[in-house]
UniProtKB/TrEMBL annotation:
<dbReference type="InterPro" id="IPR037217">
    <property type="entry name" value="Trp/Indoleamine_2_3_dOase-like"/>
</dbReference>
<dbReference type="InterPro" id="IPR004981">
    <property type="entry name" value="Trp_2_3_dOase"/>
</dbReference>
<protein>
    <recommendedName>
        <fullName>Tryptophan 2,3-dioxygenase</fullName>
    </recommendedName>
</protein>
<dbReference type="GO" id="GO:0019442">
    <property type="term" value="P:L-tryptophan catabolic process to acetyl-CoA"/>
</dbReference>
<dbReference type="GO" id="GO:0004833">
    <property type="term" value="F:L-tryptophan 2,3-dioxygenase activity"/>
</dbReference>
<dbReference type="GO" id="GO:0020037">
    <property type="term" value="F:heme binding"/>
</dbReference>
<dbReference type="GO" id="GO:0046872">
    <property type="term" value="F:metal ion binding"/>
</dbReference>
<dbReference type="Pfam" id="PF03301">
    <property type="entry name" value="Trp_dioxygenase"/>
</dbReference>
<dbReference type="GO" id="GO:0019441">
    <property type="term" value="P:L-tryptophan catabolic process to kynurenine"/>
</dbReference>
Length: 97
């Protein structure tokens, strides 16, 4: 658990950066669970998969509390990174096709 809790490496002093990083890191953890669940799609797993997607959608509600100005205070430090570059996100998309 210490590894998980110490893996938020802030690049700026922007207040919203921690929330943004934690939201994306937790999404990656849920993508890992989705990949696992999609490997054996039973009725029980499908219910779980739906709930995980519902939870992932609530993360966007949290991110939406950040204003564009808040985001701009640290966006430059992220380089060219994009959520669509996530290997696990791409794998979830592939498994759902």
């Amino acid at each position: 658990m210490d590894n998980v809790l110490s893996s938020q490496n802030l690049l700026t002093q922007a207040h919203s950066e921690l929330m943004f990083i934690v939201a994306h890191q937790s999404s990656e953890l849920w993508f890992k669970v989705l990949i696992h669940e999609l490997s054996l799609p039973t009725d029980i797993n499908l219910k779980r998969i739906v709930k995980i997607f519902e939870h992932l959608n609530t993360l966007w509600d949290i991110i939406a509390t950040m204003t564009p100005a808040d985001y701009d205070t640290f966006r430059g430090s992220l380089g060219s990174a994009s959520g669509k570059q996530s290997a696990q996100y791409i794998e979830v998309e592939r498994l759902l096709k």
